[in-house]
Amino acid sequence: MPSAPSLSVSERLIFRAGGGYAGGVVPRMISEYRLWGKIPPGFIKIVDSGGRRLILRGDQEDVLSAGSWNDSAVVEESTGLRGRGQLRRVKLPNGEVALLRRYRHGGAFRRHTGGVFFTWPPRPFRELIITEELRRRGIPTVEAYGACVEPVWGPFYRGWLATRAIPGAQDLWAALQSGSVRDAGEERCLRAVARSVRELHRQGVYHADLNLKNILLCLDSVTAYIIDFDKAKLVLGELPPRLAKNNLDRLLRSARKLDPERRYLSLARWDDFLDFYYQADGA
User: Fold this and answer.
1) Which of 10, 37, 84, 208 has its Cβ near the most Cβ atoms within 10 Å?
2) 259: how many CB neighbours lie within 10 A of its CB?
3) pLDDT at residue 10, as a whole number
4) How far apart are CA 121 and CA 113, in angstroms?
């Protein structure tokens, strides 16, 4: 194929043998932007012979094979990390480890639609784009390797997101339960979480699903990473105080739901966390 135009991202579209577009009927129904979103610099977009649409970081094009996205792919070991389903830990041919998350509905939709979606741009692409933008802004979060969308019928699809595994990371709820937070120092850990959440708000990000399982703690460096941005909203400038408070209240509701007896995150420790949040640089 001729070389791509001089853009921030290389685009390679693979066509079916018969010359038709691999994306089937969807490209005729949905605009190019709504198919993909705004691809981050350094990523490429691919449509494979099976009709799957992928956004991959340039160095992952020959690493994340089509088989990597299948739910039957070999799992190296359980991650212990859970959102609406357990993450799959897959060892890549280059020796690195990726975490693959298949998108699933929560609440009432889960029973009826499971892992089938019809929102555009696709949720995996949207989360990859937001995650990369937040990394660019300096927010501690995971490193995205790629996202995959598999057509089901018409505008309906299944989706996956692949991110780099952070060695030794635990979600905050698991770290509290296991005693890892206590062993590493409760104040150090809560300060790290408070700094990351404060930076999130300072950069104008409202995390619509902020909870104890969407914060990862790397205990070796005592660094807190915030994840799962598929429902996040970005505003210009700093997040308004009212929205920041709503987000903190959302995190508190998560703690109360998971730990109703306050065995692992006491009211006094929550107050400490709020103090650390408001003491963070620039707060």
Assistant:
1) 37
2) 16
3) 34
4) 18
Is residue 236 within 8 A of residue 229, CB to CB? The reply is no
C-beta separation of 213 from 171 below 8 A: yes
Distance CA 132, CA 251 (A): 23
Question: Where does the pLDDT of residue 83 fall: very low under 50, low under 70, confident under 90, or very high at 90 and above?
Answer: very low
Amino acid at 202: R
Inform me whether the pLDDT recorded for 76 exceeds 50.
no
Residue 73 CB partners (closer than 8 Å, separation 6+): 67, 88, 90, 100
Which residues, including other chains, have CB under 8 Å from residue 40's CB and lie 6 or more apart? 9, 128, 129, 132, 133
Q: Among residues 140, 88, 143, 149, which one has the least CA distance to residue 118?
A: 149
CB 238 within 8 A of CB 282: no
User: Measured between alpha carbons, how far is 1 from 12 in angstroms, rounded to an integer?
Assistant: 9
Q: Are 74 and 98 in contact (CB under 8 A)?
A: no
Amino acid, res. 126: R
- Cβ contact 270:172 at 8 Å: no
Which is more confident, 19 or 114? 114
CB 205 within 8 A of CB 134: yes
CB 216 within 8 A of CB 224: yes
pLDDT at residue 194 is higher than 60: yes
Asked if residues 195 and 280 have their Cβ atoms less than 8 Å apart, the reply is yes
Nearest Cα to 230, choosing from 170, 144, 169?
144
Residue 220 has pLDDT above 80, yes or no: yes
Strand 43-47 to 11-13 pairing: parallel
